[in-house]
Amino acid sequence: xxxxxxxxxxxxxxxxxxxxxxxxxxxxxxxxxxxxxxxxxxxxxxxxxxxxxxxxxxxxxxxxxxxxxxxxxxxxxxxxxxxxxxxxxxxxxxxxxxxxxxxxxxxxxxxxxxxxxxxxxxxxxxxxxxxxxxxxxxxxxxxxxxxxxxxxxxxxxxxxxxxxxxxxxxxxxxxxxxxxxxxxxxxxxxxxxxxxxxxxxxxxxxxxxxxxxxxxxxxxxxxxxxxxxxxxxxxxxxxxxxxxxxxxxxxxxxxxxxxxxxxxxxxxxxxxxxxxxxxxxxxxxxxxxxxxxxxxxxxxxxxxxxxxxxxxxxxxxxxxxxxxxxxxxxxxxxxxxxxxxxxxxxxxxxxxxxxxxxxxxxxxxxxxxxxxxxxxxxxxxxxxxxxxxxxxxxxxxxxxxxxxxxxxxxxxxxxxxxxxxxxxxxxxxxxxxxxxxxxxxxxxxxxxxxxxxxxxxxxxxxxxxxxxxxxxxxxxxxxxxxxxxxxxxxxxxxxxxxxxxxxxxxxxxxxxxxxxxxxxxxxxxxxxxxxxxxxxxxxxxxxxxxxxxxxxxxxxxxxxxxxxxxxxxxxxxxxxxxxxxxxxxxxxxxxxxxxxxxxxxxxxxxxxxxxxxxxxxxxxxxxxxxxxxxxxxxxxxxxxxxxxxxxxxxxxxxxxxxxxxxxxxxx
Amino acid sequence: xxxxxxxxxxxxxxxxxxxxxxxxxxxxxxxxxxxxxxxxxxxxxxxxxxxxxxxxxxxxxxxxxxxxxxxxxxxxxxxxxxxxxxxxxxxxxxxxxxxxxxxxxxxxxxxxxxxxxxxxxxxxxxxxxxxxxxxxxxxxxxxxxxxxxxxxxxxxxxxxxxxxxxxxxxxxxxxxxxxxxxxxxxxxxxxxxxxxxxxxxxxxxxxxxxxxxxxxxxxxxxxxxxxxxxxxxxxxxxxxxxxxxxxxxxxxxxxxxxxxxxxxxxxxxxxxxxxxxxxxxxxxxxxxxxxxxxxxxxxxxxxxxxxxxxxxxxxxxxxxxxxxxxxxxxxxxxxxxxxxxxxxxxxxxxxxxxxxxxxxxxxxxxxxxxxxxxxxxxxxxxxxxxxxxxxxxxxxxxxxxxxxxxxxxxxxxxxxxxxxxxxxxxxxxxxxxxxxxxxxxxxxxxxxxxxxxxxxxxxxxxxxxxxxxxxxxxxxxxxxxxxxxxxxxxxxxxxxxxxxxxxxxxxxxxxxxxxxxxxxxxxxxxxxxxxxxxxxxxxxxxxxxxxxx
Lengths: 667, 549
Ligand SMILES: Cc1ncc(COP(=O)(O)O)c(C=O)c1O
Fold this sequence. Notes:
The complex is a heterodimer.
Chain A lengths: L6 H5 L6 H6 L7 H17 L23 H4 L59 H28 L1 H4 L18 H6 L11 E2 L5 E8 L8 E11 L14 H13 L14 H14 L3 E5 L2 H12 L5 E5 L4 H10 L2 E5 L4 H14 L11 E6 L11 H11 L2 E5 L14 H5 L8 E5 L9 E5 L1 H10 L1 H5 L5 H15 L1 E2 L7 H9 L5 E2 L11 H4 L2 H24 L11 E7 L1 H12 L5 E2 L1 E3 L9 E6 L6 H18 L11 H6 L1 H6 L5
Parallel strand pairs in A: 3-14, 5-6, 5-7, 7-8, 8-9, 11-12
Antiparallel strand pairs in A: 1-2, 2-3, 4-10, 9-10, 13-16, 15-16
Helix pairs in contact in A: 8-17, 9-17, 10-11, 12-13, 17-20, 20-22, 21-22
Chain B lengths: L1 H17 L1 H6 L6 H14 L4 H26 L7 H10 L11 H8 L4 E2 L7 E2 L6 E2 L12 H14 L7 H5 L2 H14 L3 E5 L3 H11 L5 E5 L4 H10 L2 E5 L4 H18 L6 E6 L11 H11 L2 E5 L14 H5 L8 E5 H4 L5 E5 L1 H10 L1 H4 L6 H16 L2 H17 L5 E2 L8 E6 L49 H17 L2 E2 L1 E2 L15 E4 L6 H22 L1
Parallel strand pairs in B: 3-13, 5-6, 5-7, 7-8, 8-9
Antiparallel strand pairs in B: 1-2, 4-10, 9-10, 11-12, 12-15, 14-15
Helix pairs in contact in B: 3-4, 7-18, 9-18, 10-11, 12-13, 19-21, 20-21
Pyridoxal-5'-phosphate sits at the interface of chains A and B.
Cofactor (chain A): pyridoxal 5'-phosphate
Catalytic activity (chain A): L-serine + hexadecanoyl-CoA + H(+) = 3-oxosphinganine + CO2 + CoA
Organism (chain A): Rhodofomes roseus
């Protein structure tokens, strides 16, 4: 499906993507011309009487963009005029960027910054969920009905005339089918139709941009074959919230040093000889970061939930779970043997009613009181963009005496003025929350997860959770990425030489504080931006701006989105299943391709198929403009602009972005 | 009313059957009121549409009815309280503490966990500054610290960064990950393979991906904890056979078949789930016999090779290589990349169909981020090392032989593990226990030996397949043995040898395995060091266990 702008789109005031190319003067068709553009810009800056440029690059431990070892410069296929590999306005060397533009966008404009924080004293509110017009709902149901009927028809005919193709779906030779035609119906007849939107093979850094390995299917998505070509697209899909997916920069330097020193494995489980000093350092740092007494690290985020929850609750306990909680939480709860009840997503009334019911009724049949009640919510829901309503939950917690488990997989790093997650965002003391869990796969660009809480609790979990006994310990390179990225967000306080011991303890206790040098490996290379915390601050403020800008921009364009305005996860509702594939393909085949995630049933309710954007600190304002432009055009074509509320034309949104972001309340 | 309902029943079921899938998807309808409004308005506009609407309503009503019956089931015990009473009950309720503080023994256990400072390997340095001989860490082929792997990883780091930042379904399928899947499949000789990002979470997702309620699993009584969790999640019918006892397996398969015919069960999926080398005790499965039985009774075989992959066979391909059986006979071969290739993660290898199914149904594959690219490359390099240097596995077997030659002669312990197993479990010998089975003294360790003969006398009645407890459980005092073994571990550490007890969650395992010390032999260690370490362990065992009497 090529992206052909409709007449409507042509009328709009939006610039066509091709304008990007025309505008870029001089045309940067090669690395050499890019470099010369940089020096020209330098010359211009000098002519304007700017301060003489210092020699900033020398003090940095990592290569700057213009170094010849740049990944993109090495890349023979890279296009230099695609607005992805290089910025349209080349930076002057006064603006020192220690990053590669294709991994982490260059954005020096200090206006494009914001702070992610809940306004104290106001209740939490996400956008009210708007229902689409009735004809959209109806056509959605009808299209499901149609594809289901067609699918059954094709199965009916196929089973009679093409038996061999169905052999593995039917019982044969006395074996039941591994996956019967009935069980696999949804996958075969619905998902396969749009399989080109899923599991796309990629290569390289999943940063601001990503390299897709192109593929084609000769048989309607049954098989896929690589074409051998690659396409660089703007990546608004990876969970790279703070932009730490980087092959250059302070974190990568630290990881390289770590691999040289430690190798790549810790060879065993934590309790059976797989514990390294690095584990202990990282755990102390994580505890400091999230503001809890202690923490435990697990080598997989999913397993952090699935192997720890059984150590927290068991038979006779009750878990109260948000209906949209992640599969790993459900897995863990099921293994634990505890009873489960769910409440409606983020609906505090439903939660309170449920609490009153279960506490008064006690355990089923016996009516014995529950041993304990654990409420599990996610900090930021990854398909909805909503935040857990912590202020209310904390009130309920006081009243109903339940324990609270917050899964901060998506919110840690991505929310809050200090990047410490939802508690930070709402200004709640993390120690009042019993268990804070999170993963490193998202904001930190690493892998694995942590669980944190009081020292007594965590010590117990080290022995009683499945993690320490049975799962492989986290590997040194991953640990190092965690430590380096976390230290980068926190900033590093110098070694306490003159401080008294008392001061030192006070410093360790301060939250949200900096990373004490004593918690970092002594050999870890440190870049200046990491030490003074400016790198982390920049990331936090950029993601806050980008999230708010895209969120509000999409609403102003008239789209229906869910969630909170500060959420970096932005679901844009498509409803009709057919629009998912078209949306994804149109985005991918634009002049500047944009890579998006589309999700539908069973990950979402049946009617609310959606595209999910994951905003990153690595994106620039121009990237957000690009996404808005693309959505504007495609939204007109696909009739997606069904939202209510005030609308602005695209150009106005782009021009008044800063104003839009800083507006206190959005209608 | 009820008669019309019952006479309409066939019609209902007919509609329901033809759109059953649709029905299950419609559970999520956001409320019947909306639909009711719809039908009214659309009927006014266009009566032809009403038919479709009616179908939708039928589903909505069914959904409602079903949820009402569910509510009633739990409602039988529902007690009405006034608001005030509820308030009082809420005030009265006081929960147990979330975490019990550690008791003294647990504190001691946590404090005794060794911490390696710097890189791990055959001779790591511990927190107390001492350099020790390491027989605790999984490093079978000695890949830890391999210079080539390090260099490749740094190269990949500089091209891919560290994390994959996405699940495989959404732009997380890095080419290097696909490459590792291909490498594993090629190495083992299967059609395809799928990579999970943690070994422990692999099989506990593989089993429920295939085995649903109503399916039948026949499993060994001594399967590892990850399998136990997989069985628990899958909710299928589980039958147990005695640990590594093929006669018992045959008996169970036979009894299931009889039961099926008697109760006229429909044909469902049937699986045998077992391990290659058992994590609990190092015993090796008799793979040819397993395959013979599974073919005879038409079961599929899920084989967990977490311990054997990368440690047995001429080049480390595991049991299929050792026994020289075609790998296609193992339907789902699960292994650990973390143990076998000293990286991280796990895999399931099998046919295209088996793998493709998991890409949509393997919970911890779908809902978790893909492995970091550099770890997949470390594993790929590991495979190429194994392929190109068969001498590594020979060295490993030599080292195992050296250690066994010393430890097998110690009277106060027993070693249940197979002679070729790189994981060696040491049990305390109860003073009255029977002499070591003949198998342990088998002179040809590389050839697959006869499986351990069941300890129960053949005249005894067979165990009950529906219960995980065997009829003749081995009696032991777990607490006492654990204490003795920990004393041995501590003593060996004082002599400069790092070993560990096999740690287990005794209260959560289905049946408590006998406490043991678990050695992991590495090819990276010299023969002399192996000898030295084994002698230290021997001395410690003798010292601690002779004190006991
Ligand atoms: C809420 C939540 N918890 C846990 C996880 C699992 O984390 P990982 O991908 O690190 O396994 C995810 C990942 O998507 C998640 O969204």
